[in-house]
Amino acid sequence: MEHLAPEQTTTRPTTRPPAAAYRNLVVATVGFTLTFWAWSLIAPLGGDFKERLDLSSFSQSLLVAVPVIVGALGRVPVGALTDRYGAKLMFPLVAALTIVPVLLVIPARDSFVAMLGVGFLLGIGGTTFAIGIPLVNSWFPPAHRGVALGIFGMGMGGVALSGYFTPRMAKQSENLPFLVVAVALAAYALIALFLITDRPDRPIPTSPLAARLGQAGRLRVTWELSFLYAIGFGGIVAFGVYLPTYLKTWYELDPTDAGTKAAGFALVTVIFRPIGGWLSDRIHPATVTAFALAVVALFAIVQAFDPHLHPLGTICFLVMAAGLGTASGSVFALVSQVTPQPQVGSVTGIVGAMGGLGGFVPPLVMGAVYSAKNSYSIGFMLLSDLALAGCVYAYGRMRNLGAERP
What we know:
- The protein is mostly helical.
- Helices cover 78% and strands 0% of the residues.
- It has 16 helices and no strands.
- Helix 4 (87-108) packs antiparallel against helix 9 (176-195) and helix 11 runs parallel beside helix 15 (344-373).
């Protein structure tokens, strides 16, 4: 059952977070950044893999999208496991496991089938989102939760780091980016083992994993939030994995320039994610989400008409990045308001999975549409339609929700 909470944004307690909350926020954000860099290692080199393996546009899209779908679906069990075992165990464990596929890229790079297998395993790195959200959510009181979750969400800047540094490192030595990321993950796993602490009084569920996921899945808000996050974060992931290919194909940029501009897009989303959380601490997060998605819808229409990259195309991409980043931050501020605390990890896993899946489909659609029509306009019009639908739903339905009872 749902109940109205019309004064929830004005009656929050003003309890200050403890020092441990900030320590956990910093360490979790660093871990999220590194694992996201690992998660997106293939995308900036997509053009190189296309030439090396003689791939079609669709095959290239599939190669960069496989880690996205695995990372998305993996958030469901990882979020539920975090509810049960805590981030102190899960964060260093997942960081350490991600080292394996990062190093496997080196021997697998000359085989498309082997790269698909490695991409599948790289998806592990994309699951840490479902570890950090319940950790940060438990340490910060409601009045500070929106901005804290937004700051943690800045860890998706790992995509920007990957877009900028990975191709440059690969120019120096084709193995260098994978060795650097593997060493960084190993160092982080060791540090996180000592510095991440779960809140002592956090509720620990005792029911089986399947039962907890089923309970989270029966909450209507789980799927409403999933829809909104699939648009906001899904858009970020889709642009992160496909924008270098789009810029190289449509605007004929070289791979390094395309990767740099894609990194700039990702950087803007990173900056605006905590802004979305900060605004949600002051305005209802559903209102923030609706406004941000309306902006995305408008500028996606403009980009569908294929403007010149300088300046209009660049403006379109940067404004869409700001809107998607803001929406991603505000949706998870909404999660903290409408989800029972013991189920935050499970709900986060499902919502995060849907966000990742939202990023899996567009690259495949864009690759298929371009192969068939030699144009990307249809893809941008579809983004506009989805963003507008999310805008209407967030404003019309989600503004009046309080926490659902389990």
